[in-house]
Design brief:
Elements: E1 18-24, E2 30-37, H1 38-48, E3 57-62, H2 66-80, E4 103-106
Antiparallel strand pairs: 1-2, 1-3, 3-4
């Protein structure tokens, strides 16, 4: 099973940091987009999600507010169409280019 420390550099994120995260598969397939306390949510997915064994990298966006995180989560779901997010009916949010300032962490090579 993967653990948080299997990802290069992710220790820069403290347990209290809140934001939006994107879980990616090996071929850049978007598996899941979520929000909340990054490390707690990420650890949950590594331990109990049906897709934990497909996670290859994570992109993290640290937001300034709950509203900003919600809007970003919606925008990223609309943009990437994650495989494992449940279907939700949100308005299309266009024109947001957050990918440029996210930080991605890759699985360590063994």
């Amino acid at each position: 099973m993967l653990v948080k420390n299997d990802f290069v550099g992710i220790n820069k994120i403290s347990r209290k940091m809140v934001g939006v995260y994107v879980l990616w598969g090996k071929n850049d397939e978007c598996l899941y987009v979520g929000r909340g306390q990054i490390i707690n949510r990420f650890s949950f997915h590594l331990g109990s999600s049906e897709f934990w064994n497909r996670i290859f990298s994570i992109t993290v966006y640290l937001g300034n507010s709950k509203r900003e995180n919600s809007l970003l989560e919606y925008a990223l779901i609309q943009r990437y169409k994650p495989i494992f997010n449940k279907e939700r009916r949100w308005n299309n949010i266009v024109g947001l280019k957050y990918k440029d300032w996210g930080e991605r962490f890759y699985l360590k090579k063994k």
